[in-house]
Amino acid sequence: IGGRENLNMAEGQLHYNNNMAHTIAKRYSIADQNMYLKDPQMRDNPQYVKTAKAYFQEINNATDRKYGFLKQLIAFNYIMFSPSLAFVELTQQGTNLLPAMIMQGMGLGEGLAKASKANWDVVQAYLARKKAGTSYNIYAPKPNEMLVDGQSEMTRVMKTAREKGLIGPGVGWNQEFWELGHDVTSMNQRNYFGGNGKLLDRTGLIGKPLYQMYKLGTDIHGIAIAQNTEVAFKVAYDHFRSQGQIESQAFHSAEGVLIEAMHGGGRASKPLWFLGIGPGSPGASVGSVMYSLQMYVYNTVAQMGNYLSQAIKNTCKNPTEITAAHKAAATMLTASL
User: Fold this and answer.
1) Phi and psi, residue 139, nearest 5°
2) How far apart are CA 88 and CA 73, in angstroms?
């Protein structure tokens, strides 16, 4: 009988700490949820209580355990093989930010104009940052604006938002693509504790195409996220300032809009329909796959497929009609893709 030479104590300790932290967080969440359900306004609305319980149940004990391999393929494709999908991320400005600003009283035309200007301003602020060699974007002051510590109000606001983790990541892929020192350390630690023990140097990573594809995909996607979040925050902040809110109030209001429009927040922030709650929902597993696709086109096509399937099932009875309807539906969905 051998000894403990094959026992990976470091990995075991990591799993133990992870499970313990998960248990503590879950207990806290359940206690918080129970307090929410006991609120008098909730108890006076049984339908709200029913929906809330279904939502909490899905958060605490997720049922979307199917299609695990498909989800891995989606993530693998999205992160590594489709850096161009980062541009699709920018469509969130139209699908998420504009509706959120309309809810705040901004008109559609005004929202489009403000978002367009904000995109240009963010790019100019980034170029000013690179020229000055700072770690934050530098916005030009407004006419007759008084500077504080040599910085415009928008520069200070965005700097605070970045420090709080509300906007970003803001690193350019050109720089990250070749600065490999931090990745060498991280990968060597993983190989030593949980892998084959092989140690790499900078040249070892440079020569690995899979690593380069991963870096390119994640960093370009990171740029899109940075642009999205900063544009959203700027549009919202300017809007609330124009309504007469002071700097701290506008910051708080803009933070709320940003979190609502741009921060997914994992399973807890998914729309209820994707969690299997509500009429017409395909269930938590299918909803999870649809949500993971990250592309509104794919989600729409999947929803169209569900509608077509239900329509054919409910209206076509003759086998010939069913066959023809399926062919037409397949042609339409293929054309959409």
Assistant:
1) -95, 140
2) 18
CB distance 91 to 99 below 8 Å:
no
Distance, CA of 106 to CA of 100 (rounded, Å): 9
Tens of pLDDT, residues 242-275: 999 999 999 999 998 887 777 655 566 666 777 7
Burial class (CB in 10 A: 0-12, 13-18, 19+), 248: exposed
How far, in Å, CA of 25 to CA of 60, rounded? Answer: 10
- 62-66, 200-204, 287-291: segment of lowest average pLDDT: 200-204
Tens of pLDDT, residue by residue over 266-299, are: 566 666 777 788 777 788 888 777 776 655 456 5
Helix %, strand %, coil % of the chain (to 5):
75, 0, 25
Residues in the chain: 337
Question: Among all chains, which residue has been given the structure tokens 């938002």?
Answer: 161
Of the candidates 96, 118, 103, the residue with the CA atom closest to the CA atom of residue 233: 118
Report DSSP letters for 182-230, one per residue. Answer: HHHHHHHHHHHHHS------HHHHHT-HHHHHHHHHHHHHHHHHHHHHH
- Which pLDDT score is estimated for 171? 35
Q: Reply yes or no: is the peptide bond before residue 169 cis, omega within 30 of 0.
A: yes
* pTM flag (> 0.70): no
Strands (E), the chain: none
